[in-house]
Design brief:
With 334 residues, the protein is of the alpha/beta class. 40% of the residues lie in helices and 21% in strands. It is built from 13 helices and 13 strands. The strands form 2 sheets. Strands 12-11-7-10-9-8-13 form a 7-stranded mixed beta sheet. A 6-stranded parallel beta sheet has the order 3-2-1-4-5-6, with helices on both faces. Helix 4 links the parallel strand 4 and strand 5.
Length: 334
């Protein structure tokens, strides 16, 4: 099949490399506002260059991957759907929830699949955890712990436009908690601090946060995030039930150092980047998209799914700013 890529920056180039290695993909067509980036990608991956998103959609593509800046996501999703082309879009759907809801309304009833990029749903550990929960191996759940710790903050310009740590980083934890447990979040309480980079504080954001989520069956989820984890990129989940407990991410590249005498775990070189930690998941995610394009499966992460994680992020952001518990229903009402 022929796949278009809109936006060929860091993640777009990574997706181009992944797609070019999939048996189902015969050719790529790329476009980027920076013509040099598009030409460099074309040379590297044997892709064709188009001078605009419209040209990509008119180039006979079977599906399109949106890896452009967040502000462009709504327009590009809608353009692809209007053209009848299945679309994969990196999260978020839009910069604001109001815009995301408008995108959802605009594509409702259209027979064109949209897949949003939440790659943890394709990581082998998280897939196994979901299977264990849905299969009843853990019994009733009582506690979930989800962690995302970045090795260093992104650039100041990124932070200023990110919408805050809950919308940019923690939202991955919120999505995977919903997906693994099969439950919805009813209420949150969030705290945060900033003891690191001044530009994060100046942007009105926190660099380290904690959130307590109450799920709709009473399960408690604890989410921990930070922009500062000098040992590496740390993504983990613990799921505790009345019959058993399991963990995702406890492997030799875990960026954590044990001080227990005689303990040699973890013994590997720590993960230091999200692309390192989730290389296989990204490949599985885009493989799934080719199956969506081929019509052999439905979207594994819909706009609705992405918006649900977004509402949790909105509730946590409000909770942090107002120092109080916030229900998801409250932020939905606006």
């Amino acid at each position: 099949m022929r796949i278009g890529i809109l936006g060929i920056g860091r993640i777009g180039a990574f997706h181009a490399e992944t797609l070019s290695g999939l048996d189902a993909v015969d050719s790529l067509v790329v476009a980027d506002p920076f013509a040099d980036a598009a030409r460099a990608a074309a040379e590297r991956f044997g892709a064709e260059v188009a001078d605009s998103p419209e040209a990509v959609l008119a180039a006979g593509v079977d599906g399109v991957v949106v890896a452009a800046a967040t502000d462009a996501h709504p327009e590009l999703i809608l353009a692809a759907v209007e053209a009848g082309v299945p679309v994969f879009c990196e999260k978020p759907v839009a910069r604001t929830m109001a815009e995301g809801v408008e995108v959802l309304k605009a594509v409702a009833g259209r027979d064109v699949p949209v897949q949003i990029g939440y790659n943890r749903r394709f990581d082998a550990g998280f897939v196994a955890a979901r299977a264990a929960v849905s299969g009843g191996e853990l019994g009733r759940l009582h506690t979930v712990r989800s962690t995302t710790l970045d090795p260093a903050p992104p650039p100041a310009a990124y932070i200023a436009a990110s919408g805050g740590i809950f919308r940019d980083c923690s939202v991955h934890d919120f999505d995977i908690i919903r997906w693994v447990t099969g439950r919805e979040v009813s209420e949150v309480y969030a705290v945060g601090g900033n003891r690191g980079a001044d530009f994060i504080r100046e942007a009105g954001d926190a660099d380290t946060t904690g959130a307590i989520l109450t799920l709709d069956d009473g399960t408690i989820a604890v989410v921990s995030n930070s922009r500062h984890n000098a040992r590496g990129y740390d993504v983990r989940m613990e799921i505790h039930g009345f019959d058993d407990s399991i963990a995702v991410g406890l492997e030799d590249k875990l960026p954590l150092r044990s001080v227990e005498p005689g303990t040699t775990f973890p013994a590997g070189t720590p993960h230091d980047f999200f692309m390192d930690r989730f290389t296989a998941a990204y490949r599985a995610e885009l493989t799934a998209f080719t199956e969506v394009v081929a019509g052999s499966r439905t979207s594994p992460c819909t706009i609705e799914d992405a918006l649900e994680a977004g509402w949790i992020a909105e509730a946590c952001t409000l909770s942090l700013h107002e120092h109080r518990p916030v229900t998801v229903a409250e932020v939905r009402r606006g």
